Amino acid sequence: MISVKNVTLAYGKRVLFDEVNLNFVKGNCYGVIGANGAGKSTFLKILSGEIEPNKGSIEITPGERMAVLKQNQFEFDEQTVLNTVLMGHKKMWDLMHEKDAIYANPDATEDDYMKAGELEAEFGEMGGYTAESDAATLLSSLGVTESFHQSLMKDIPGTLKVRVLLAQALFGNPDILLLDEPTNGLDIETISWLENFLADYENIVLVVSHDRHFLDTICTHVADVDRAKIKIFTGNYTFWYESSQLMSRQISDKNKKVEEKRQALMDFIARFSANASKSKQATSRKKALEKLTIEEIEPSNRKYPGIIFQPLREVGNQILNVENLSKSVDGRKLFDKVSFSVQKGEKIAFLSKDPLAVTNFFEIINDNAKADGGKFEWGTTITKAYLPLENSEFFSEGLSLIDWLRQFVPSHVTDADEPFLRGFLGKMLFSGDDIMKKTNVLSGGEKVRCMISRMMLQNPNLVVLDQPTNHLDLESIQSFNDGCQVFPGVVLLTSHDHTFMQTVANRVIELTPKGIIDRLMTFDDYLEDNRVKQLREEMYA
Fold it and tell me: Which of 58, 73, 131, 292 could form a disulfide with 161 if both were Cys (CB 3.0 to 4.6 A apart)?
């Protein structure tokens, strides 16, 4: 168990945590959520001992081992990949070197060899004799093939380093596992493996993540960081979000009787607990939900942006036709023979095993890059708004937010005065003096929120979204997701956010070096379809 007692942390006048008291217990997985800057990552660093609080203490049950997902990719540059993982279990690693040093010492005494025997027994009890094979299996499961296991960390690609550090944290079944954004840099298959691994994990897990599907799959509880406090709620992220929203509506509904409100909340809890899957985490969550009382549900204090795309006109019959588009970069074929047409009502999820493929495709159809071959044509009725992966070129000048947005007022708007522009910025939670903030000092999340304001200003009937959840907090992601679901126009999107892809898209197109896979189905159905799985293997072979 981890006990957090009266923890307080402040930087000058800014108070991150004020008298926080919590217990984290075995068998539970806690999703640590909160707005950007609330202190989620800092809290994990306090738990691990990396940051000392101004006041209070962290107590861990004696003998329990904590593992932390390291963020420094260069820390183990001179170690082999396999040894980096083994070093995740420090006690086992130190013990192995201690006993090996005795055997390597030509002057070792009989007492030394007696000591070595004791160390051998302890090493065996820790699982030391299968440690290398266990570490190798873990690496392979995370997509680090055997050919890299004896390479030095400095010689492998950065995308693999992230996976090795994740394997290091998971190695040896630690009693307490702290993971900060563990899905960063992972592909769909590896995230799915990690979800299954953690969903059946029997010890304590605390995880910070902006991936709602990941949180929903693994979490039994949510630790909500808000207003310098942390509260623990039963259930996964979706349960927390929907129950807090329902409670907010119940409080504001003056016409409904108290008993009716209570029954609606009880029905909601029962419905959620009935949908538990077979994993141990979900079973644990189901039991916790069954014991939950209405009083434990609280309305959220969070502010959610208003992301609403309002088309001036409906799309016509011709939307987008693509014929035989192809693109290579540095001799690497990103995609080839891309041909399809977009129809009314379609919201298309694009994906590829090559992260550059979809971004290049979106840049081409938005006239920011040239294809190697083929052509595309937009319908005359289309008004599109594009959210690119990289937005730095839009923020090179130090304009105020309101002057920045004024640049993008479309021709159909005749009266773009300050109140009009404030309205679009206000929807993205820029209020008061915020609108005078200079664009060259904005954070990554603030820049994306500006770009979304710019998109809404266009009144598009088609939106193109390249990784729309990057840099956003969960509140903005949820609002963006909801806005795209109710948007009456066409959506072309790619995202690492599984929930976004699943809840918005009704068609999936995968770009490969040998053509496309195109299916009218949801994202989950696409990933589970056996015929698609076989075709994907052939396309990437």
Answer: 73
